[in-house]
Design brief:
There is one protein chain. The protein has 744 residues and is mainly alpha-helical. The chain folds into 6 domains: 67 residues, no CATH class; 39 residues, no CATH class; 215 residues, no CATH class; 52 residues, no CATH class; 74 residues, no CATH class; 81 residues. It is built from 31 helices and 8 strands. Strands 1-2 form a two-stranded antiparallel ribbon. A two-stranded antiparallel ribbon has the order 3-4. Helix 8 runs antiparallel to helix 21 and helix 11 runs antiparallel to helix 18. The relative contact order is 0.11.
Length: 744
């Protein structure tokens, strides 16, 4: 048994403890194992002589056959690390000047255990570009980069972090992360791919929530139960669009029963994945094979959503009395004007025919005074609607009333199995959801203000500080979007099939800090971004490459390729054509015939391009999101299809990507726009080349690059007969450089 170690770090984490282990013997005769457990290791031979009591306990256990306690699979799974309460650990003492904050202490402690050291801080030009893309999804202006690099302020970096967190573009960047999770799109998917009315209002709600630094627990409550939490708040009600923007078959009325089952299934699966990081869908047909989620718990969650129905929610339904009064007054005046016009025309109607000239004949029949009165009424009608606007709607959900359809456990597909009541996952404490009133059947119209309160109860349960998954999952997502990989590498699977966290103590420290800071996402950003860990250079040392090739322990910063939206938006910024108008209906950009071709149909038949050309250069988050057809420029750079929740973007390298940036219509058009600007400002090639490098790559052109670019311009000017066309080709080449496409 020499060298046996049954309490390694991984086994301790898998067991859901920090050093305690499942030990043999009964509670009255396990003194030896209690002592060893408290020491954090069970090793043979022991490190020191055992006490007589410990030897006696060991002999007694061996004489009894050395039985090992049998632990059920359910108990083992329930002991998994992520289901245990979050316990705030002590920050390691490092004795080093490198840590800037507590994050660095945890990281340095783990690096030393691996025989690694952190990398030096990146230069300021690298840091500002990294920060801009991480917080806004856009590159900095060359002038802003230069001012930051040359700043003498010791707080320049911290001030830049605060500046970008206050930028409205922050919400667009981080809102896009959330939209990936909830599978946001403007269409429903499947065969018809019908448009979802007003889905864009939920997109704008998400962006606004991030910009306002809405506390994450409130963000959860509004999305799951905004109509129950704050029914008079348009923003909260809009948050329930969470239930509407995923793929759905609501447009297949001949399959309404099947649709309802699939809808409820989707609600449970998505909610568990997004907010709890669990793959609950495996428990739909049977007890979960790996996680402690019995089938009964799955349908208890489904019962929570059973009363909810999708609807178009009028955003002025409550709390906007002025709007409703104006509507009533307008309707009354409209009726009065109609009656007066009818009275004027009444005596003439028998004299005219119902034809193309009917109105002209009626006017001819009227006296001059009557015609003047008719004109005055027409002007009143115009004034009545001069400031008219349609009542705004959002997609959302309401309960059908304070009752609910019953939910049953399926029995070979039958609906007549055992009835289950709404409740929570037993592994996280369980519990029933109390009913607002006695159950009853629907009879007649139900006021919208009456609900079961089930979704609100679920939201409160998920968003409670003591939920061990909610905070861990969210801080892990924030960490992932800054470092490319979560502390737990499976961000939407914290179950037993997920990856173990590389820094479990840091994850729990961040989770507890998240709650302590009022669930503020911006404060978590500020904490992470100001750390020495985040500011490291991306240049890996020799030891790091050999001892930690995946950079799991963060001895340097991990390079990443820009996302599809960041690439398109960066091209627009470089070309100087980006339109930063925020919000509103989705933009349908013009596409070429080749781009619109689709083997399963021709989207061009229904691809109704936005009329206002200024909209075409809006940020990518505002482009229409169709499930069955993605904008080719974005699809080629791995934008998700939004049929499934996307917790992490993949990054491929394919030939079509280079072809898109070299020859695609979007890149060609934007390169021409920048070329026209540069040629108009620079008569000499040297100045033009320097300006192109500064605008696209945000740096000065090196002498060797200057020579190559000058030769290229000369050759292409001879080939194309145009200095502007040659410059556009040079710019397209710069768009294809890794320096443009990657963040260090």
């Amino acid at each position: 048994m020499s060298g046996l170690d049954l309490s390694s770090r991984d086994s301790a984490i898998r067991g859901g403890t920090r050093g305690a282990a499942i030990l043999p013997g009964n509670s009255g005769r396990s003194l030896l194992f209690q002592a060893v457990s408290q020491a954090g290791a069970l090793k043979m031979p022991p490190g020191k002589a055992l006490a007589r009591e410990e030897l006696d306990a060991l002999r007694e256990w061996i004489d009894g056959g050395a039985p090992w306690p049998v632990v059920s699979q359910q108990a083992k799974r329930s002991a998994w690390w992520s289901f245990q309460p979050v316990v705030r650990p002590s920050v390691p003492k490092t004795g080093s000047a490198w840590p800037v904050n507590s994050i660095d202490a945890f990281i340095l402690h783990a690096l030393r255990a691996k025989g690694l050291n952190p990398s030096p801080e990146a230069d300021r030009a690298t840091l500002i570009r990294r920060l801009y893309f991480d917080l806004t999804g856009l590159p900095p202006a060359a002038e802003r980069l230069q001012s930051f690099v040359s700043s003498k302020s010791p707080k320049a970096y911290e001030e830049l972090v605060d500046e970008l967190l206050s930028s409205p573009q922050y919400g667009e960047k981080w809102g896009r992360h959330w939209l990936d999770l909830v599978r946001y799109a403007d269409t429903a998917g499947f065969e018809l791919d019908s448009h979802i009315p007003d889905a864009w209002r939920y997109r704008d709600y998400v962006i606004d929530s991030f910009n306002q630094d809405k506390p994450y627990d409130l963000f959860i409550r509004e999305q799951l139960a905004g109509d129950e939490v704050a029914p008079e708040d348009p923003a909260a009600v809009t948050g329930t669009g969470y239930f509407c923007v995923g793929p759905n078959r609501d447009y297949f009325p001949d399959q309404s029963d099947i649709n309802r089952v699939e809808t409820l299934t989707d609600y449970v699966d998505t909610t568990a994945s997004v907010f709890l990081g669990l793959s609950a869908g495996c428990a739909r047909c049977h007890d979960h094979k790996f996680d402690p989620i019995p089938q009964r718990d799955y349908y208890r969650l489904q019962a929570v959503f059973a009363p909810a129905v999708k609807t178009r929610v009028p955003l002025t339904r409550l709390g906007s009395l002025a709007f409703d009064v104006a509507e009533n007054i307008r309707e009354i005046k409209l009726r009065e004007i109609g009656e007066q016009i009818g009275a004027l025309e009444e005596r003439c109607r028998s004299q005219v025919k119902n034809g193309a000239n009917r109105d002209a004949e009626i006017r001819a029949c009227l006296s001059p005074a009557e015609r003047a009165s008719l004109d005055a009424l027409g002007q009143s009608l115009i004034r009545l609607f001069s400031n008219y606007r349609a009542k705004p709607f959002a997609c959302g959900v309401n309960d059908v009333g304070d009752y609910s359809p019953k939910t049953y456990l399926p029995v070979r597909g039958s609906k007549t199995g055992e009835e289950v009541a709404p409740g929570f996952l037993a592994v996280l404490g369980g519990g029933d959801i109390p009913s607002i009133g006695p159950p009853r059947e629907a009879t007649g119209p139900i006021p919208l203000s009456q609900t079961t309160g089930r979704r609100r109860a679920l939201a409160e349960w998920i968003a409670r500080p003591g939920n061990p998954l909610t905070t861990r999952v969210m801080v892990n997502r924030i960490w992932q979007f800054h470092f490319g990989r979560g502390i737990a590498a499976t961000p939407s699977d914290f179950g037993t099939r997920g990856r173990l966290p590389t820094h479990p103590e840091l994850l729990d420290w961040l989770a507890s800090e998240f709650v302590a800071q009022g669930w503020s996402m911006k404060k978590m950003h500020r904490l992470i971004l100001n750390s020495a860990t985040y500011r490291q250079s991306a240049n890996a040392g020799v030891d790091s490459a050999s001892r930690d090739p995946e950079n799991l322990y963060l001895s340097h910063f991990s390079r990443r390729r820009l996302t599809a939206e960041e690439i398109r938006d960066a091209v627009l910024v470089s070309a100087g054509t980006i339109n930063l108008r925020m919000g509103g209906t989705p933009v349908v950009p013009p596409l070429s015939g080749e781009e619109l071709f689709n083997p399963i149909g021709r989207p061009g038949d229904v691809w109704i391009v936005t009329a206002d050309k200024r909209e075409y250069t809006r940020r990518s988050v505002y482009l229409i999101q169709k499930r069955t057809f993605r904008v080719p420029m974005l699809e080629v750079f791995d934008t998700p299809d939004n049929m499934l929740t996307c917790p992490r973007r993949e990054s491929s390298t394919t030939a079509p990507q280079s072809l898109t940036l070299f020859n695609g219509p979007f890149a060609t058009e934007q390169a021409r726009a920048l070329a026209a600007t540069l040629v108009s400002k620079h008569n000499d090639d040297a100045g033009l080349i320097a300006a192109a490098f500064r605008q696209v790559l945000l740096r000065a052109c090196l002498p060797a690059e200057q020579a190559v670019a000058a030769q290229f311009l000369q050759t292409q000017r001879a080939n194309t007969g145009s200095r502007e066309a040659a410059t556009a080709e040079l710019i397209r080449g710069l768009f294809n450089l890794n320096e443009f496409l990657y963040v260090d």
